[in-house]
Design goal:
With 442 residues, this protein is of the alpha/beta class. The chain is built from 13 helices and 17 strands. The chain has 3 domains: 163 residues, FAD/NAD(P)-binding domain (3-Layer(bba) Sandwich), CATH 3.50.50; 184 residues, D-Amino Acid Oxidase, Chain A, domain 2 (2-Layer Sandwich), CATH 3.30.9; 30 residues, no CATH class. 32% of the residues lie in helices and 24% in strands. The longest helix is centred in the last third of the chain and has 24 residues. Bound molecules: flavin-adenine dinucleotide.
């Protein structure tokens, strides 16, 4: 079987590695002529790290990342609302990793080139169209057309096409021509990194504010001089802009547009405006997603990652869910052997409802709901948080989100990769969980 993967982002590269692992031939086609380390920080949740460990890249990722042990939520006055353990400290068998997106992509790309060979990734190949030939028959195939930077068109054929071409997916637009731009919720995010003294213990992610104005920061690298590279997001909702242009991950931000709004966010654990001013640059991005689709697969063409389920960057799920898609797809194609249509169908059946639920959960603020409640109930601040919100309210919101996103501690206890879980029936999974619970850290 020959699979065409479109897009060498996080989802496309993990798809290539996972298909190779189960003995399926893959060629990857990427639009940009050169893959550069773009983006800022990204978080990998423990269930995605389990998958990357299964792929044998965990030690290299860990050496280029920070594993947070705590997430602390603060009010807009810098007062702690609650803290929760993360990663190994929360009892997972795998850490959570905070890493520069470019580093993550570089490590995955190196593994792909090493394992699949240097000629399996075709940069400068922008997909323009794809179609299934002889759809519904056992010998159906896909024909994909790509344009190169010199304007030439090339045609490629394979048995399956996986569109991992991101939030502006050409394949999705071809199947849903009326869908148009992503949906914007009015929030703008300025993202950047800054080399800075550690905040708190250097292993804590901080979220401060409420859904209408928020500051998020977490370290992504320990620097040799004792400081850390800190990733930040400064965000606020606005009514005074129209999303006229297509958003771009690399659109530069203007400090005057957002730093003044944080002028009085000077806390004992962070001088927020000072940190923002120290950043060499920022990127501005609107908080966008798309409505979940009724179907991902058309003939032998299916969607994966942001192409399938773009979601708000709340709760650290964008990259993690793309990784889970990739692993599940490989497991489904392996489980169904020669029946490609059944394999792709099972992939969609397993992944589409789960990811649609996360898109909706993120629209309902996901784990940030308690921050909203605190702002509504105590906009002028509080002296005792227990008089504003109960621990039970916080736990209900956060645990529900972990379950929806598939990273409740118990769900990972089996240690079974999503790729291997496909072949197991419920009894097998239960046995795996029971065996593995004994090995979960206390
Ligand atoms: C340049 C860039 C920077 C990013 N920075 C961040 C960040 O800082 N923080 C964060 O949380 N998320 C960031 N993201 C998004 C994040 O990578 C995704 O949300 C998540 O990892 C899911 O990955 P994906 O593979 O589905 O999509 P992406 O990572 O977006 O990858 C899609 C890939 O498909 C390629 N592509 C697009 N159209 C075509 C086409 N027609 N033909 C061939 N190839 C095509 C793109 O060039 C890209 O390499 C960034 C994405 C990009 C592309």
């Amino acid at each position: 079987m020959q699979v065409i993967v479109v897009g060498a982002g996080i989802g496309g590269l993990v798809t290539a590695l996972s298909l190779h692992e189960v003995g399926i031939a893959v060629q990857v086609y990427e639009s940009v002529p050169e893959i550069r380390a773009l983006g800022v920080g990204i978080n990998l949740l423990p269930h995605a790290v389990l998958e990357l460990d299964a792929l044998g890249v965990l030690s290299e990722l860990s050496a280029n990342a920070v594993a947070p042990s705590k997430l602390t939520y603060f009010s807009k006055h810098g007062k702690e609302i609650w803290s929760e353990a993360r990663g190994l400290s929360a009892g997972y068998r795998w850490p959570q990793l905070s890493i520069h997106r470019g580093q993550l992509q570089r490590i995955l790309l190196a593994a792909v080139l090493d394992r699949l060979g240097p000629s399996c990734v075709h940069t400068g190949h922008h997909l323009v169209s794809a179609e299934t030939l002889a759809s519904g028959t056992g010998d159906a195939e896909v024909r994909a057309r790509f344009r190169t930077p010199t304007g030439e068109e090339t045609e490629v054929r394979g048995e399956v096409l996986v569109a991992a071409d991101g939030i502006h997916s050409t394949v999705r637009a071809q199947a849903h021509p009326l869908e148009g731009m992503p949906i914007w919720n009015g929030a703008l995010l300025w993202r950047g990194t800054v080399d800075h003294a550690a905040l708190l213990d250097g292993r804590t992610m901080v979220w401060a504010g409420h859904p209408d104005q928020k500051f998020v920061a977490y370290p992504i690298l320990d620097l040799p001089d004792g400081r850390q590279r800190i990733n930040f997001i400064a965000e606020y909702r606005t009514q005074d802009r129209v999303l006229a242009e297509r958003e771009d991950w690399n659109k530069p931000g203007n400090p005057a547009d957002f730093i003044p709004r944080f002028a009085d966010w000077v806390f004992d654990w962070c001088d927020v405006p000072g940190l923002l001013r120290a950043a060499p640059s920022t990127f501005v991005f609107p908080m966008v997603d798309r409505d979940p689709l009724e179907a991902w697969t058309d003939g032998r063409i299916t969607l994966l990652g942001d192409a399938a389920h773009p979601m708000y960057p709340i709760g650290s799920n964008g990259a993690s869910q793309a990784i889970l898609d990739a692993r599940t797809l490989a497991g489904c194609l392996r489980a169904h052997g020669g029946d490609v249509d059944a394999g792709v169908g099972l992939y969609e059946q397993l992944r589409r409802p789960v990811t649609a639920a996360i898109v909706h959960a993120n629209r309902s603020l996901g784990p940030e709901l308690p921050m909203k409640l605190v702002e509504e109930r105590a906009p002028e601040g509080f002296s005792n948080i227990d008089e504003v919100i109960t621990r039970a309210e916080i736990d209900a919101a956060t645990e529900q989100y972990r379950r929806t996103a598939g990273f409740a501690v118990a769900a990972l206890a089996s240690g079974i990769s999503a790729l291997d879980a496909v072949g197991l029936d419920a009894a097998g999974l239960d046995a795996g969980v029971t065996d593995a619970i004994a090995t979960v850290k206390p």
